[in-house]
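User: Hi! I'm working on a homework problem where we have to compare a predicted structure to a textbook description. Could you give me the structure for the chain below?
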Amino acid sequence: MTTDTLFPPVAADSGPPWQAGPMEFTLVQHFDAHLPDVIELYGDPDFFTSLPPTLRLATPELVSCDRSAATVVLSLRHRLTAELPAMVTRFVDPTKLTWVETTTLDLTTSRSTSIMQPDEYPELLRASAEATFAQLDGGATRTVTGRVEVPVPIFGAKVEGAIVEGLEEHLRGEEAAAGQRLNG
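Assistant: Happy to help. Predicted structure tokens:
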């Protein structure tokens, strides 16, 4: 059987052709520090509330932090500060583009899970991520794998791409700030 490479077959459950589906990403952060120190930092709310703003995001605000012997549950409110295209602002108020990221850091497994819950427009964004911390020779890594979905026909995939770019920019800034804090 030959397939037309210009029009590859579409899986039956992939949804309508104008809606691409969730965008997934993976980013690896590197630290010149011991694993326990990196994990401790990622369980510290002061680290996150001291991060400088990026071109797209304001400095996170602490909503809550609950710590036990085995876990840290940290909730941070994020606010989008990027300029949005007029096509998007016809449907959403840019001043209402805030969300709470709730991260559960399991201190026993060196893993975390995060869910992003919009304060407004909950039907327009679904996002989650997992992170795995690992010790390497002379340092540690944090591998973040996430999924972003904006279930809006036609331009949802473009918005997903912009969100992922913003998340990657934020994670790179976070990595640099963590390196300064850990080694400074």
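For your comparison, note the following. The chain has one domain: 23-183. Confidence is low (pLDDT under 50) at residues 1-13. Good luck with the assignment!
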